[in-house]
Amino acid sequence: MMQFGFCNLAVIPVRRDPCEKAEMSTQLLFGDILEVVGKSGSWFHIKNFFDGYQGWVDSKQIREIDEEEFHNLGSSPVFVNRQLYSDSIMNKDMTLRLPAGCSLYDLKGQHTEIAGEDYLFEGKAYPFIFTGMDDLLKTASGYLSCPYLWGGKTCFGLDCSGLTQVVYKQHGIRLLRDAIQQSTQGDLISFLSDSRPGDLAFFDNAEEKIVHVGILLDSQRILHCSGQVRIDTVDHQGIYNRQYSKYTHSLRLIRRVIGQYPIPNNYR
Prior knowledge:
By secondary structure, the protein is mainly beta. It folds into 2 domains: 4-127, Roll (SH3 type barrels); 133-256, endopeptidase fold (from Nostoc punctiforme) (Alpha-Beta Complex). The protein is built from 4 helices and 23 strands. It has helices at residues 67-75, 133-141, 160-169, 179-182; strands at 4-6, 11-15, 24-29, 33-40, 43-48, 54-58, 63-65, 78-81, 87-90, 95-98, 103-105, 111-114, 117-122, 125-127, 153-154, 157-158, 187-189, 200-204, 210-216, 221-226, 228-234, 238-241, 246-256. The chain has a 6-stranded antiparallel β-barrel with strand order 18-19-20-21-22-23.
């Protein structure tokens, strides 16, 4: 059985169970490396190296790599693309259109090598380091009006935590996958008035379970994905949707995940 692999397609679904009809819980983007931890028929139970998230993928949709390359890629300098869906990558057999947030390892010029294949990247890739909040918020705003899709991570459909994860990834910040997981990262901010642009705000349901996350633009506005990526007003009570003239999400807590120091240009 394959032990390690990488996503060599633009995007593939990761499902709750080993079945095409099962719920899509997340997606893999090109370059994601993974460990295979189980098998059921033609399905692999995988663990994504980037965020530790587990789920089931069709074995036909991933490419095998050996353990040495898996660890080498995980330690290599990483580059990430930011164009929503206009970059491309090609090898001798195929050309792919890439969504933003794909991983390119040890990029030399426009070339990267994975599993013995040389890939030519056409576009602009950025080192996996944090370069400033203005750039991050500009990237986040580029997703405005993209539709909601449970488990999605691309401009063609994404969920609330998929949005935050892929935006922060493009700027060198490694977030976990789900909102409840992301709510454990960074420093707790006591009051909305103490927040800064780029802080993450988390919201709970009637059972007090965290179910939603968004990016604060300031202490009064939030960018988040609810139906679509949108900007709404926020206060100590929660998100107020002017379109429906009501509060739609109840504020639970705020986290600051961006520190004052550069982050290494790899996933280790």
